[in-house]
Amino acid sequence: MTSPDAKEAPLHAMSIDVEDYFHVAALSNVIRPEQWDSLPSRVEQNTELLLELFERHSVKATFFVLGWVAERFPQLVQKLASHGHEIASHGYSHQLIYNQSVETFREETLRSKDLLESIIGKEVCGYRAASYSITRESLWALDILSEAGFTWDSSIFPVRHDRYGIPDSPSAPYSIETESGSIIREFPLTTAHVMGLAIPAAGGGYFRQFPYAVFRYLFLNASGFGDRPQMFYLHPWEVDPDQPRYNNASWFSRFRHYTNLDKCYGRLEQLLQDFRFSTVSESYNAYEHDKTLVRSNQMIRLA
């Protein structure tokens, strides 16, 4: 291990967004939701590949399971829970929250939470939005999450992006007071600060597109070079280079989705050797932060 000594290294959060290759926003212009049931699913085999890897390295992770997946593969959710991993919600239909009505989001949020809880027989307290789509335009979703019984969220990315992000929102775990006065804990996605720039370093496409040495440096940078836990995420389809290819998608969408799929599994295994990981809840609880409280209406005013 080339990272700081394991006894002193922070306990980072390992999170997996359990969705299939055809659910992703990058391919939404060429694959419609009504087609999903007719397409060959690969989510079960890919998730089990990650499960085997985590077992080999004695790592527990948080699996944010899409309700659509849980409904069709309840045995997969049961297996993840039985192996001691944390189950959290990824919503139901993988639609961008700011494109949904309040009523639709509420219905899907409750549907997915109830489904997951009925499968594993315990309360589901964590949530992550599809494509990190809790933005300034959809902060109202936090009240619905709180009403539904969620106590923590990991949907806010403190970066500028064409699809998500609240720039200059806190980069360390914090608590949010919603418009209705509820409190929900937030574990934001990882960003490194280099020469005054906030650079995404949380995983996913950034993990695949950056050379591993660069990503490792950025992840270390974000952690204060070994002082603070950070959030890492990946999707099961990112370790599947044999998935169907949609060449009718735009070149940018293809770049986002297909770059270095063949290298991702090996990089992930190296990451597990270079850093310490556990579930989101364990990582958050181990974080010695200043209990920052941010009101959701303050977020709207953040630059």
Automatic annotation (TrEMBL):
CDD domains: CE4_PuuE_HpPgdA_like_2. PROSITE patterns: NODB. Signal peptide: none annotated. One of its GO terms (molecular function) is hydrolase activity, acting on carbon-nitrogen (but not peptide) bonds. It holds the Pfam family Polysacc_deac_1. Residues 27-303 form the NodB homology domain. InterPro entries: DUF3473, Glyco_hydro/deAcase_b/a-brl, NODB_dom, PuuE_HpPgdA-like, XrtA_polysacc_deacetyl. One of its GO terms (biological process) is carbohydrate metabolic process. This is Polysaccharide deacetylase. It comes from Marinobacter salsuginis. The lineage of its organism: Bacteria, Pseudomonadati, Pseudomonadota, Gammaproteobacteria, Pseudomonadales.
